Amino acid sequence: MQVTIIGSGYVGLVSGTCFADFGHEVVCVDKDSAKIEALNAGKIPIYEPGLDDLVATNVAAGRLSFTTELADAVASADAVFIAVGTPSRRGDGHADLSYVHAAAEEIAQSLSGYTIIVTKSTVPVGTGDEVERIVRDVAPQADFDVVSNPEFLREGAAIEDFKRPDRIVVGTTSERAQEVMAQLYRPLYLNRSPLLFTARRTAELIKYAANAFLAVKITFINEIADLCEQVGANVQDVARGIGLDNRIGSKFLHAGPGYGGSCFPKDTLALLKTAQDHDSPVRIVEATVAVNDNRKRAMGRKVISAMGGNARGKTVAVLGLTFKPNTDDMREAPSIAIVQTLQDAGARVRAYDPVGMDQARRVIENVDYAESAYGAIEGADAVVIVTEWDAFRALDLKRVKSLLKSPVFVDLRNIYPVDEVTRAGLEYTSIGRS
Ligand code: UDX
């Protein structure tokens, strides 16, 4: 099949490359000519493990190409995916749909033969209807269907998530469109990943409901962790004890410094806006957003109290800056609020991240960057693990102790056994394991 992807950002690039790997002919389009030039020169503009090899293989096989020319790519396509950004609109938290609408208009001008237009971008309920209206206005004679096909790709594991999904959600009631979608996803379908056909608005809501539910789950265990600290319980054992119940499930029960990233914060806010507009509040998500916002600075205060309540003039080594490991993404990373809180309290921050330091420099000011974890720790008054990169999981704790000026070790991801750290002579503070 001929597939065209509009928007060669994270979602578009991963989806396009994986579709090409399934054997389809894929053209990825982007307005940013520097990005397209880079891609054509074999340079991948984002950090995603395995993506560079997969792009190279499919480009070499002639199934994947990149262009700024939308018209030709749309005219020849069986399916056109809209994978442009939908950032939170400044001021009101609504998803900004201007890129989606602009893409719909441009696509409409070049449609030829029966084409399905698929929204992959995360869009509020009803956006598919709007896209259909726009296309119909511009091209009244065009033969097309608009489909919702939300993505559930985790950064750092996006290729795996695309190729081995728990489910594929397809929102359309058109049988012709369903057939094209089934063909596109045939390799997965054959592998028995369930293909769930729903109405379009339902598919749009599934995406928001899924992300909001996961955000609620994380926030729930974070608050239980706080309670564990007060009552002398262990949150990891609580998570295991409840997670083994199949109705609950063990995933997304890792207590930590609060969720961040490009999806959960933005999508929970957008869901709340939709709920507000329809006078149908989702209070549990309102509470989740508020609790998570407070939590990030609270983690900074936790570090300060581990240092005896005074951070003025002290140096804190921060290990890990990105919102999670295996990405260079700093969007809504808890590290931003944590560093800010430490700086507000008069501390100097020295940070190290295996991949994210270039991005971090753009969003966090007045931080010294070290060349390694030990480089950050040397001479510091405390060390705090903010992101659970593998590189921080097996630190030489004796060496950490000898490098630190005072033995304060804060682990906001619970990646060490308590006794191992205390045995090394460090004062250990973690999450929900008092
Ligand atoms: C998420 C969804 O998982 C994905 O399906 C969706 O389409 C996009 O958003 P992503 O943002 O890449 O993916 O990361 P994810 O692995 O889900 O983690 C999100 C945040 O939650 C991170 O800040 C992570 O540290 C935090 N988290 C996750 C926890 O604090 N505890 C957990 O148990 C799991």
Tell me briefly what this model is.
With 434 residues, this protein is of the alpha/beta class. It is 45% helix and 14% strand. It has helices at 10-21, 33-40, 51-60, 70-75, 98-110, 127-138, 158-163, 175-184, 186-190, 200-231, 235-243, 264-277, 283-306, 334-344, 357-363, 373-377, 397-403, 418-423, and strands at 2-6, 25-29, 64-67, 79-82, 115-119, 144-148, 168-171, 195-198, 315-319, 348-352, 367-369, 382-385, 408-411, 427-429.
Folded structure, characterized:
The radius of gyration is 24 Å and the shape is elongated. It folds into two domains: 197 residues, NAD(P)-binding Rossmann-like Domain (Rossmann fold), CATH 3.40.50; 201 residues, NAD(P)-binding Rossmann-like Domain (Rossmann fold). It is 45% helix and 14% strand. Strands 3-2-1-4-5-6 form a six-stranded parallel sheet, sandwiched between helices. Strands 11-10-9-12-13-14 form a six-stranded parallel sheet. A two-stranded parallel sheet has the order 7-8. Helix 1 crosses helix 3, helix 5 runs parallel beside helix 6 and helix 13 crosses helix 14. It is α/β, with parallel strands linked by helices. Helix 18 links the parallel strand 13 and strand 14. Bound molecules: uridine-5'-diphosphate-xylopyranose. One of its GO terms (molecular function) is NAD binding. Its EC number is 1.1.1.22. It catalyses: UDP-alpha-D-glucose + 2 NAD(+) + H2O = UDP-alpha-D-glucuronate + 2 NADH + 3 H(+).
Structural key phrases:
14 strands, elongated, Rossmann fold, 45% helix, six-stranded parallel beta sheet, 2 domains, binds uridine-5'-diphosphate-xylopyranose, alpha/beta, 18 helices, NAD binding, NAD, 434 residues, UDP-Glc/GDP-Man_DH_N
